[in-house]
Design goal:
alpha/beta; UDP-n-acetylglucosamine1-carboxyvinyl-transferase, Chain; four-stranded mixed sheet; binds uridine-diphosphate-N-acetylglucosamine
Length: 422
């Protein structure tokens, strides 16, 4: 297994180019199941999770070929299996969103239950309730949801929580259903809008994506299309923190600032300067960082996927910050690792109290999930001395060319085989 070694204390300076959004790409790849015609995608990030999604789609009969570094063609001419196996669903929970498109296209699906993960229980009850409401018979047998339907029928579905995955699953089931489906309390994330935009380009009739109520009028069939994936807002904001935490100055090209309002507001409150420049955003922290209070929320609130990175930043602020995690119940696994680097963080239930310290010091650390790993990378960039981050595969799942991008801005960062540099 690889690990990263970072020699901290180098201010990052230069320009960062962002990749396509991981969380937009994954459901969009699954949407290829909805038509027998080719789909052509651009700005597709080359990530571990994208490889997992393509492996899953291949087992279902979806052929793909890369046409360029970030351009991909998919074709689901014939669905040869309706079975999403456990080893792929447990590796990547987003695999569960094949349930809706498979049911819509071939009227049956057998999808492994994902189980819990490092950041919480993460149930799929809302996905399943929505699919049932559309008329599918769903049974849990031997760890798999087995679903059948003649043709799904539109209905009103109220989501208890605006779940991103449940909204996407139900949306993809509803586009080929008979009649009208209304998803109330739908997720409003930009990635849901990107999926809806692509489905509309395939011939679907969808209104209201990006609002709390999405209205879908089912159509008989969908056709092929071309689509460009939106820029990754989580990568963009992670890079903003990289500039701020190292006391550098980065120009982040094509920053999707309209998707980052809550984040930019919090960064500014912490004393970070974020200003439009040259088709991107210039980010720097000219003054000492100030403490802030923040709570994670569904979009357009502060994203849970940036909580670990923000905690790393606030660990160096002048004063005490309070972070309230309201989306996932167990998403503070990075806090004890940050404490090993000299941070002063106390966790009380869903709240983290972060007392800023003057300096962090490099240490061997490991993370249990993708965004937590990024929090540790950021802390390592700012720390004195060497930080060794193991389990780099988490980062490879969701950050494209991370070392290359950071090294290009002056970071001292190297990937080695675990065990070889201890
Ligand atoms: C997606 C993102 C993930 C992000 C999360 C929240 C992808 C591939 N992943 O995950 O990076 O952290 O949104 O922004 O897009 N819930 C239920 N029942 C369900 C489904 C969800 O109770 O059936 C709960 C979850 O436990 C969690 C909350 O709803 O507390 C939000 O989860 P959800 O929006 O579904 O996250 P994902 O789609 O899994």
């Amino acid at each position: 297994m690889d690990k990263l070694i970072i020699l901290g204390g180098r201010p990052l300076n230069g320009t960062i180019r962002l990749s396509g959004s991981k969380n937009a790409t994954l459901p969009i790849l699954m949407a290829s199941l909805l038509t027998e015609e080719p789909i052509r995608l651009s700005n597709v990030p080359r990530l571990g999770d994208v490889r997992t999604a393509l492996a899953l789609l291949a087992t279902l009969g979806v052929a793909h070929r890369w046409l360029g570094d970030h351009e991909l063609e998919l074709c689901a001419e014939q669905i040869v299996s309706h079975d999403a196996p456990y080893h792929l669903v447990k590796t990547m929970r987003a695999s569960f969103v094949v349930l809706g498109p498979l049911l819509a296209r071939v009227r049956k699906a057998r999808v492994a239950t994902p189980g819990g993960c490092a950041i919480g229980a993460r149930p799929v009850n809302l996905h399943v309730a929505g699919i049932r409401a559309l008329g599918a018979r769903v049974q849990l047998r031997h760890g798999y949801f087995e679903a059948h339907a003649d043709r799904l029928t539109g209905t009103r579905i109220w989501l208890d929580t605006p779940s991103v995955g449940a909204t996407e699953n139900i949306l993809m089931a509803a586009v080929l259903a008979r009649g009208r489906t209304v998803i109330e309390n739908a997720a409003r994330e930009p990635e849901v809008c990107d999926l809806a935009g692509m489905l509309v380009a395939m011939g679907a009739q969808i209104r209201g994506a990006g609002s709390h109520v999405i209205v879908i009028d089912g159509v008989e069939r969908l056709h092929g299309t071309q689509h460009r994936i939106i820029t990754d807002r989580i990568e963009a904001a992670s890079m903003m923190v990289a500039a701020a935490i190292t006391g550098g100055s980065l120009l982040i090209r094509d920053t999707p600032a309209e998707h980052l309002e809550a984040v930019i507001a919090k960064l500014r409150e912490a004393g970070v300067s974020v200003a439009p420049e040259d088709g991107g955003m210039r980010v720097a922290a000219p003054r000492p960082l100030q403490p802030v209070e923040l709570r994670t929320l569904p979009y357009p609130g502060f994203p849970t996927d940036l909580q670990a990175q923000m905690m790393a930043l606030l660990a160096k602020a002048e004063g005490t910050s309070v972070i309230n995690e309201t989306v996932f119940e167990n998403r503070f696994m990075h806090a004890p690792e940050l404490c090993r680097m000299g941070a002063d963080i106390v966790i009380k239930g869903p709240t983290a109290i972060v007392r800023g310290v003057a300096r962090l010091s490099g240490a061997p650390v490991m993370a249990t999930d993708l965004r937590a790993s990024m929090g540790l990378v950021l802390a390592g960039l700012a720390a004195e001395g060497e930080t060794h981050i193991s389990r780099v595969y988490h980062l490879d799942r969701g950050y494209e060319a991370l070392e290359r991008k950071l090294a290009g801005a002056g970071a001292e960062i190297e990937r080695v085989k675990d065990g070889s540099a201890e």
